[in-house]
Write a structure and sequence with these properties.
The chain is mainly beta. It folds into two domains: about 150 residues, PRC-barrel domain (SH3 type barrels, Roll); about 55 residues, no CATH class. About 0% of the residues lie in helices and about 45% in strands. The protein has one helix and 20 strands. Strands 1, 15, 16, 17, 18, 19 and 20 form a seven-stranded mixed beta sheet that branches. It starts with a strand and ends in an 8-residue tail after the last helix.
């Protein structure tokens, strides 16, 4: 299968669910585990779909299996934001003492408060304790890379050689076989990079185990 970000994600009946936003891979096994589908006609928020519900994919569209035509909002939201009390966010420090341990609120941030009225000659520094913090939870497997559009690709000698244009997988195993590198950084033409050359991957970067000169010797990619 072939995944290109921005392509239409369609139900088996041809209705557009949204756009392909990210391809989630396990950097260790190089398997595609999920797809992130962006907002569309059926999705009001970006959703995470397991690769098992994908029937086929090419550079024009991703087609879902007939069994997932109904109730598309059952799939988890990609990123969920929570506002939680600061005590539950690990923002307090635990201090060990002779009588045991205790939680201590960290030093507050101080904000300058301007004087009120001409009769007051000084300034006030008002302490501020944030009562809550915002945490973002992502519904993808821990340790996976949710490759965003145009994720940068770096060679082993730390050269930015291009960006991810497409992801090619084996339809039987859902394992990534190749990445298509965009042209315009170092290369005048597209290059097809074997996935076995991946050393590490995050959402916005892929680091390769080969140097720039190896990539330069690769043949140019052509769809013909």
């Amino acid at each position: 299968m072939e995944f290109r970000e921005g392509t239409d994600v369609l139900t088996a009946s041809g209705e557009k669910a949204g756009d392909l936003e990210r391809v989630v891979i396990d950097p260790r096994t190089r398997q595609v585990t999920h797809l992130v589908v962006g907002k569309g006609f059926l999705f009001t928020e970006s959703r995470v779909l397991p690769i098992e519900v994908i029937d086929s994919a090419n550079d024009e569209r991703v087609l879902l299996k007939p069994t997932v035509d109904e109730d598309l909002d059952q799939w988890p939201i990609f990123e969920e934001t929570y506002t939680i009390p600061i005590e539950e966010a690990g923002a307090y420090e635990r201090i060990e003492g002779a009588s045991g341990s205790r939680l201590v609120r960290p030093a507050p941030a101080y904000y300058w408060y301007p004087p009120v009225g001409a009769a007051y000659a000084g300034n006030l520094a008002m302490p501020y304790y944030p009562g809550t913090v915002v945490e973002v939870e992502r519904n993808v497997p821990q340790g996976s890379a949710a490759l965003e559009e145009g994720a940068a690709i770096y060679s082993a000698d730390d050269e930015h050689v291009g960006d991810v244009e497409r992801v090619f997988t084996d339809s039987e195993t859902d394992t990534v076989t190749h990445f298509l590198i965009s042209r315009g950084f170092l290369f005048k033409h597209y290059k097809l990079i074997p996935a076995s050359w991946i050393a590490d991957a995050t959402d916005d970067k892929i680091h390769l185990s080969v140097t720039r000169d190896v990539l330069e010797r690769l043949p140019d990619y052509s769809e013909n």
